[in-house]
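Fill in residues.
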């Protein structure tokens, strides 16, 4: 018996080694010809790059992507970008700074997302009843001019007329991320500074001085702030409106979670869009040939564009975006018309630095 068993075991061992060698060689063959690209991305794009369908499609296009997450302002100011093939911050100001510092980099604009405010139906209806918001088809428009005026006057939630929904003494605030780290907070700053500057983009030091006191209070009064846009949105999903009745987010975050239909977006949760509105453009800067190949793929490949939509992002494929939100019954603003541009990188950075000083 032992004489028979010994040769059999040897054959099985050889077969196992052969299978391992086969798969190792197959994996090497599969990877052969792939361009490895490494980059820095904003956290809101992590789920997209982790999607196995995106990974597979990029491999079909000859690309294998590795990334590190960082805040958009950090990407633009604190990293040695010579170590990376691409950078993919959120928002034009950070991209503008990177382009200035790396004039050989090429810019691609594959995705964008409107800024939005995550809220609840009772809160939105309360604001509408007090002239601070307006109801549209399933969503609301938050009147930033009226809202900031109420904030300037020191109004609290309990001061709102006929307030049965949220009669608390908290300041009338929109919760955001940390202005020192995050693009979504910088976009909130861009919106607020525009309104406070008489519906004009802040362009010089004199205008900065006028808007600075109030925009500083928008952030300081919030207390501790998280650096990533994922943090406040998770609090919104888990802790309810008692934690923060209004949360500045990317529209993408709400759409992506609603499409999962996992119960985290409940029927009383609604999107509000600030008016005026602002789009966050996700600009990829290619720093090497591999980075440029990735930018071109994300910008032009129909399959990748559709996958981006399924992660809540808007692309040039407007028709598929409308089809996707309609399929999942997600009430979004189809066409935003009162849209502004953010200040230049230099101007918004100057405002952030002045606010940063108040934290010290």
């Amino acid at each position: 018996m032992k004489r028979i068993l010994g040769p059999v075991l040897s054959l099985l061992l050889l077969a196992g080694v052969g299978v391992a060698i086969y798969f190792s060689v197959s994996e090497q063959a599969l990877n052969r010809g792939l361009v490895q690209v490494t980059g820095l991305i904003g956290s809101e794009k992590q789920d997209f790059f982790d999607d196995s369908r995106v990974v597979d499609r990029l491999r079909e296009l000859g690309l294998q992507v590795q990334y590190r997450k960082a805040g958009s302002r950090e990407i633009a100011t604190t990293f040695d970008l010579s170590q990376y093939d691409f950078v993919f911050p959120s928002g034009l100001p950070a991209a503008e700074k990177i382009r200035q510092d790396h004039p050989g980099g090429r810019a691609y604009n594959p995705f964008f997302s409107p800024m939005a405010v995550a809220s609840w139906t009772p809160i939105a209806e309360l604001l509408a009843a007090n002239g601070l918001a307006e109801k549209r088809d399933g969503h609301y428009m938050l009147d930033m001019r009226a809202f900031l005026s109420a904030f300037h006057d020191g109004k609290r939630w309990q001061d709102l007329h006929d307030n049965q929904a949220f009669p608390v003494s908290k300041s009338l605030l929109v919760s955001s991320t940390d202005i020192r780290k995050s693009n979504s907070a910088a976009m909130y700053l861009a919106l607020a500074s525009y309104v406070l500057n008489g519906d004009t983009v802040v362009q010089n030091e004199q205008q900065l001085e006028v808007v600075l006191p109030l925009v500083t209070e928008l952030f300081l009064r919030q207390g501790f702030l998280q650096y990533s846009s994922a943090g406040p949105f998770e609090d919104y999903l888990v802790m309810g409106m008692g934690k923060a009745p209004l949360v500045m987010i990317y529209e993408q975050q709400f759409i992506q979670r609603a499409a999962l239909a996992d119960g985290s977006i409940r029927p009383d949760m609604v999107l509000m869009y600030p008016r005026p509105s602002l789009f966050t453009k996700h600009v990829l800067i290619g720093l090497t040939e591999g980075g440029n190949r990735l930018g071109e793929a994300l910008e032009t490949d129909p399959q990748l564009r559709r996958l981006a939509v399924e992660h809540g992002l808007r692309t040039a494929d407007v028709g598929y975006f409308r089809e996707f939100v309609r399929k999942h019954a997600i009430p979004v603003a189809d066409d935003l018309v009162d849209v502004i541009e953010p200040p230049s990188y230099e101007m918004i950075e100057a405002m952030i630095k002045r606010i940063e000083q108040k934290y010290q």
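The mean pLDDT is 90.
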